[in-house]
Request: fold
Amino acid sequence: MELQVNQLNSLVLAYIGDAIYEVHVRNHLIRSGQINPHELQTRAVQYVSAKAQSEIMHYILEKDLLLDNEKGIVRRGRNAKSNSVPKNAPLQAYRYATAFEALLGYHYLKKNNERLYELINKALQFIDNK
Reply:
């Protein structure tokens, strides 16, 4: 059965995008020499929190790094209505974080690996340089 990625709910895209990004962040931290498990978790939050992902999404938008079809994915992700209320972030940050995760999920499910890795690397560099 062929998955119709373009038809998927943005929250579904964000669900898988969140997992993909988390794995890349963990790999990035381990490869950077972060060995202590407590330190790994503390550092990972700096990359994966809603606040951090919102800042990444704003950076990507400000630098005009998105293709036209990606802008639509981001818009859908940002406007997606979730039944859960964010605990540790303002609603606007949560929505932009969801947009970022949806964008990554979209590329992962479309198997656009080159673009997926490009966006993830930009996100990691942005956080590393803060």
